[in-house]
Structure formats: C-alpha cells, structure tokens
Amino acid sequence: MTTTVTSKLDERTRDIVKSTVPVLAEHGEAITTHFYKRLLEDHPELKNVFNMTHQKEGKQPRALANAVNAAAQNIDDLTAIAPAADTIAEKHVSLNIQPEHYPIVGEYLLKAIKEVLGDAVNEEVLEAWGAAYGEIADVFIGMEEKKYEASAWTGYRNFTVEKKVKESEEITSFYLQPEDGGSIPFYRPGQYIGLKADIPDYPHTQLRQYSLSDEPGKGYLRISVKREDGTDELPAGLVSTWLHKDVQEGDVLPVSAPAGDFYLDESSNRPIVLLSGGVGLTPLMSMYNKVRNEKEVYFIHAARNGGVHGLKEEMAGKQSYVVYETPSEEDKTLGVYYKAGYVDLDWLRTVVPKDADFYFCGPEGFMRAVNGALHEWGVPAGQINYEFFGPKGTL
User: Fold this and answer.
1) Residues annotated in a binding site for heme b
2) Exposed (0-12), middle (13-18) or buried (19+): which is 140, by Cβ within 10 Å?
3) Residues carrying an active site annotation
4) Main EC class of this protein (predicted)?
5) Using an 8 Å Cβ cutoff, are 209 and 258 in contact?
C-alpha cells in the first residue's frame, strides 16, 4: 500500500526549496559530510549510534545527500519518497532513534548548508529549509511511532549465544536464544536484527544490523556474519572481527527486534528467484528455508570460490546453482559449482523463468549487474526486490 504524504508547506516555501535542487545536486555530499563532522564533534555521544566505518567510507554522507535531494525534488508531494522513507524508518527503529533526536539533526543540517554554501544562502532559504525539514521529520516520526507499536520489543533485549558455527573461511553463524527464556519473536524471512556491541578498549558503543539467516519458527535467531578483514584503504570491520574472534558460546548480546522492509512476499503465486553474492546470501537463505518445500524456488549464489562460500550444504537443491568466479582446484575436483565466472543475462535466461519474483542481495557491483540484467530482460519493476547492506544506495 502506498503511503500518501501531503505537504503542509505554503507554495512560497515549496518553491524556494525546489529552487535549491541544482545546488544540492552539486554540493549535497559536501554539505552532508560537513554536517556529520560538525554533529559528531559537538555531540560525540552520537558516535554510539552512527556506524563510523560508513562515515569513513563516505557511504552515510552520500546516502543522506541523496535523501535530501530527493526530498527537495518532491517537496510538493512527499508520497514519491515514502517507500525510501519507510526503509530508512525501519533502520531507525532498529537503532532506537527517538523523536528528540530530530531537532539536533535539523539544527546541524541547516548549519552545514550555511557554512558550506556561505553567501549563496540567505535567511529566507534557511527558513524554508527549516520548515521543510520539520515536515520531513514529522513524516519519519509518524512512521516510526507505528513501527515501534508493532515491534516485538523496544530498545534492546539480551540474547545468549547458544551456538557458534564456522561456515566458511570468512563466515560464522551465531545462534541466539533469549536470556530471559521468553519466546522467540515472529519475523518475516529477509528481515534483520540490530546488535549492540560494547567492545573492550573501544570508546563508543557500536550498533550493527545483521540479516536473520534462517527461517522463523526454529526456536532461535541466527545471524551469519562475514569477517571483514579490511584493506590498505579501509580498516578491518570492528564488530565483525570482534564477533569472530572474541564472542563465544554463552556470551550475551543485546539485540533489537526484527525489522526491515526486504522480505518475502509469500502471497504471490509466481516462482521465486533468489540471487546472492558473497554474504548477501543471508537474508535469501531465510527466504529459501521458509518456502523451499512449498513453492517453486530457484537459488543462484555467486562467490569467489568454495572456501568462502558459507551455508553451502543448506542451499543445496535441484534448482540451486552455484557460480564461482575463480574456483579452486579442490572445487574443480569436487564439482561443487555449476558455472565458473559471473552471473550474466545470457546464462540467467537458461536456468530461471522470467515471470518470477526476483530477490537479490550482495556487493554493490553484483547488485548493479543483476539489476541491469533483469531490466534488460524486461522483468517488471514490481517483481524486482533487493536489499543494501548499510546505507541505502542506488542501482
């Protein structure tokens, strides 16, 4: 169902905001980068909320710049941005964002606009953007209030690591049980949970979202986490490394309730095609396990080789296809993959039906290639579903 969001701003205010679209397109990322820098300098406690790795990579400022620009373009009728806003609101609920956070963000966003653009921005423009931000914030607060009311719990609930299983060279699964012995919450296949990590000798709490990698109703919550080793340009993943190296069976982890708008539409009668790259298989594995015995399901997974392919035994099936970019000699000997190289449209046409519901997740390059292939094939947009790990990007 489409959420209708009617603007309450007067025409003059909306015209001023729309007039800033070209400037935002040119300077938006500089504004949001400066915004986060000032905000976190003056409010270091918010480093307990924001993913600092995404800050260093520039993903969070880029995502915010895209969101601000989209809001400006659609200020006459914010209904157009409602789907994207819903995705962000799901993440906010997982992070336990509250209404009192919004005025702080608004204050620093206006400061950033003024400080980056300087004399190019007058008081009338700042006032218009202040009014627009207030309206956009109200939209988010209203969405999030409804989501909190429907959530299994608010804030964080302690879960015990019942079992820790190494799935591949890079991926380890954690089976979680409520410390209080209470019930396991309902969730939709494809959703995620939030995890709060207080890492010794690190000054800030770290909040991360991890997809649930098994179907609901199993008596546990399972996350399957890739260890991010880092590169010369980027540090190793702080939380993923901690989970792999330090968290053991019996340890307790604070967890937020399942959330997310990427989940299986079980009401559809079309076949289901799941396409994953790397650790992007985790939400799709939840979907696969839920309906593999009930519906026509095709599962295509791409990985570098068998050594890094997690949950491989679980995804086995007569309509599962494994694609290894550079299969090892052991992979070749065992014959555990279907195709060497990449997932491409010419091959995809031969193994899955076009009239299907497509779900995909993985590295951004993989997702861009899959999305392009599906559109080239003529798959209707309403049958294409995907999930970004981290701030929402564009394909």
Assistant:
1) 92
2) middle
3) 102, 144
4) oxidoreductase
5) no
- In whole angstroms, how far apart are CA 204 and each of 98, 152, 207? 19, 26, 10
Residue spans of the domains in the chain: they are 11-150, 157-259, 272-387
Confidence of residue 236 (pLDDT cuts 50, 70, 90): low
Q: Going by CATH, does the domain composed of 272-387 fall within 3.40.50.80?
A: yes
Which of 365, 161, 387 has the alpha carbon at shortest distance from 282?
387
Quote the CA–CA distance of 321 and 390 in Å, as a whole number: 27
Please enumerate, by residue number, every residue annotated as part of a binding site for NADP(+). Answer: 278-283
User: What is the distance of C-alpha 214 from the center of its chain?
Assistant: 17
Tell me, which fold does domain 11-150 have in CATH?
Globin-like (1.10.490)
CA distance 371 to 313: 27
**CATH class of the structural domain 157-259:** mainly beta
Smallest CA-to-CA distance from 369 within 344, 389, 347, 390 is with: 344
Measure the CA angle with vertex 3, ends 376 and 9; round to 5°.
110
State the binding site for FAD: 192, 208-211, 388-391
Q: Note whether 11-150 and 272-387 share their fold.
A: no
User: Is the pLDDT reported for residue 1 higher than 50?
Assistant: no
Count Cβ atoms within 10 A of the Cβ of residue 395 and give its class: 0-12 exposed, 13-18 middle, 19 or more buried.
Answer: middle
pLDDT band at 395 (very low <50, low <70, confident <90, very high): low
Label residue 394 by pLDDT band (50, 70, 90).
low
Q: How many CA atoms lie within 13 A of 16 on its CB side?
A: 16
